[in-house]
Structure formats: structure tokens, C-alpha cells
Amino acid sequence: MTFGTPHPLHRLMLDDVRGAQKMLSGVARTTALEGSRHLSSLVGAPVLLKCENLQRTGSFKLRGAYVRIAGLRPEEKAAGVVAASAGNHAQGVALASQLLGVRATVFMPVGAPLPKVAATREYGADVRLHGHVVDETLAAAQEYARETGAVFIHPFDHPDVIVGQGTVGLEILEQCPEVRTIVVGIGGGGLAAGIGLAVKSVRPDVRIVGVQAEGAAAYPPSLAAGHPVVVESPVTMADGIKVGRPGDVPFGLVQEYVDEVRTVSEDALSSALLLCLERAKLVVEPAGASPVAALLSDPESFRGPVVAVLSGGNVDPLLLQRILRHGMAAAGRYLSLRLRVADRPGALATLLAVLTVVDANVLDVSHVRTDPRLGLTEVEVELRLETKGPEHCREVEEALREAGYTVLA
Question: Is the pLDDT of residue 10 over 50?
Fold first, then answer.
């Protein structure tokens, strides 16, 4: 394969991925494969984490972006490149362009997290904020390409990008030759397509499982229909896999090489991110944690050894704070309650004494006295508690009811 020129799907082969791996030598890191004792105990077989969150720019996107840009003709490189992204692809294109000496313009949504905007600029790209959703940003980038002649670098819908991402699969086979299942998040499909192509070409017995967020799952209906279909207004915290339509190029490869696509809930994503942080000491974004969410949701359905690909770690600190709270609540570690108590001196102290007995840590207390549903001598108290798990949450609520308090929904 000659990089930079269009190729029909059937010509994408293992040798193309191996060529991309040579091209990326000294550019992309060979990221670590870390064991997880907790996940291994749940699955009943070894589970290893492929840490692409520790890749340069914080995600696997550098691989495909570099291969795509390196394969451009000299006159195309001279015209520069343009991309649209809210984060990971933006940084991958920016660094790849810097390394290759190519001018890069990156369009990002107006509300893109400031750390991602700053990082993209630091890698040397000309960042332009346009639109409030990625579709508007994408349209602006494509218009810029038409007006200036810059080459548009798609995040997943190009053969060069796919073979670049496929180098993750070659590394997994080198690091864990006995692997039986690989679990990977799917947005547009470039990473799953590349890994599937690389791995199945060598080990057709390895099962490839794709994972999508329930609110942005375009692949299950697309695979059922036999062609890409659009999911209107996808909604998920996992912005890295929040894609409303599969890419045309990766879709065919996913059809051929990915054995199954599962969906996971927002609660599962939150719990997975929290587990990565607490147990593995790894900062992972929601999209990167999606394979772990799938393992937590149905651990006994995976044959081991299992490799879960942590595709990225670029999470905004403010979002991380909200996700951790959500994850703690989903794991029974954080409990919010509303109670009606008598509006008299000492009533709050009595309530807190009940919580002390059941060892619930009070994080916050607020009062409401103006609700017309309250009696004249009542006050509503909202409590936010740190708890030890679902069983402890039930114990706390039962203790409050036994003490005579009305627990409101």
C-alpha cells in the first residue's frame, strides 16, 4: 500500500499495518500492558489494560493522524492540513503536523475544554473556535479546506488512519501472544477496524468486542441494516465515542473483523472510570473506560486472557469531578437523601447522631423551609453522604426510617 492515496477496502492488509508500525517507530510510544487483579478476579481470567491513555497527546489518535499526514504528497503537505475535533483528534493532528513540518489548522467547538484547546495550540496548530456542536465545527473545517486547498484529515474515515490505529493491535499481539479477547470502544470505528484487521489477520481465533455508549450507539442498528445509519442527537458523557454515524471505510472492516458490539450505560462508564482511577491509578476519559464498563457489566461472558484498550486519558478536570461523583453514586459510595424533620432546636443534631451510629460521613447539609407541602412545624433537610457501597446505603435508609424520619424520593 502506498500511503496517502485512496484504496478500496479489500486492499487493506496486514502488511499495510506493519508498514504503519515502521513509520511510527520513534514517533508513537509502545504503550504499556498492565494487569488488573480486580478485573481478573471478576472475569475469572487474566485481564490486561492496554494503556493508550499514556500515549503521546493522551490518546491513540496520534498514530492514525501521523500515518495519514506522512503519506501526503509534497504539494499537499505544502498546502497544509485542517481538522475538526473537540479534543483527541485535534491534539493528534497538531503534534503529527509539528513533527512532519506541516502547517495545521484545527477547528474546535466554542465550548471545548480549555486544557484541550491549550494543548492543541502548544503542539503548534492554529486553533479556531467555531460552532457549539461538532457538526458545525466539522462544516467549518471542510469549508476552510475547500477555500484554501488544505487537506482535510478525517478522524476515522480514511484507510491510512485505520492502518495507523491498527498498530495498537500488533502491539497487543506482541505483548500478550496468548490473548483470546480484545475489548475496544467504538465511535466512528477507526480504532476497532484497525485492531480487527491487524489481529484477525494473524489470530483469527481472537474475539474482538466493540463497546458503545447506550445513548450514542450507531453501530448495532447499522450492522443490522447492513449499512451505516444515523443516530440522531447522540447523548453520552463519553465524547470520544459520541459519533452519530459510522464511517464508511471502517464500517466494512468492523462488519468483517469485529465479532460483537455491546452497549454500556452512563452509570457503567462512571463506575469504570472510578475503578481505573482507584484500582489501576490511571486517569482515563469516559470513552477510554468503555471496555472496562463492558467487563464490569457482564464479566463472566469474556474468555481470557482479555485485553481492554484504554483509548485515551484526556478528560477535563471539571468533567472528571462530576463523573467521579456520578461514579461514586453508581457504586453506592455517595448517597443523596431528602428528609422531613421537626423544625425545632436540636433536631439536626439528633438526625446526625443517627447517621453517626451507621457510620455515614456527612458531606453537605441544606434546609428548605418554604415548600408549601411542608407542615407548619416541619423543615426539609437534604443530605449528601459518603457511604461504603449499596448495602451500606440500604442500611442508612433503614436506620433513618426506624428512627421515625420520612425519606423522600
Answer: no
Other C-beta atoms lying within 10 Å of the C-beta of residue 9: 17
| pLDDT one-digit tens code per residue, 32-64 | 999 999 999 999 999 999 999 999 999 999 999
Q: Is 353 exposed, middle or buried (0-12, 13-18, 19+ CB in 10 A)?
A: exposed
Residue 111 has which C-alpha cell? 465550548
Q: Are 325 and 335 in contact (CB under 8 A)?
A: no
Question: CB of 95 within 8 A of CB of 56?
Answer: yes
CB 96 within 8 A of CB 20: no
Give the CA-trace dihedral at 241, 244, 249, 254, to 10 degrees: 60
Share of the chain above pLDDT 70, in %: 94
Residue 61 appears among annotated catalytic residues: yes
Contact of 74 with 93, CB cutoff 8 Å:
no
Query: Is 311 an annotated catalytic residue?
Result: yes
324 within 8 A of 292, measured Cβ to Cβ: no
- 59 phi, psi to nearest 5 deg: -165, 170
Residues 324, 328: Cα–Cα separation, whole Å = 6
Specify which residues 184 forms β-bridges with.
210
Active-site hit among 50, 61, 77, 200: 61
C-alpha cell at position 40: 481478573
Confidence at residue 383, expressed as pLDDT on a 0 to 100 scale: 85
- CA–CA separation, 239 vs 187, rounded Å? 9
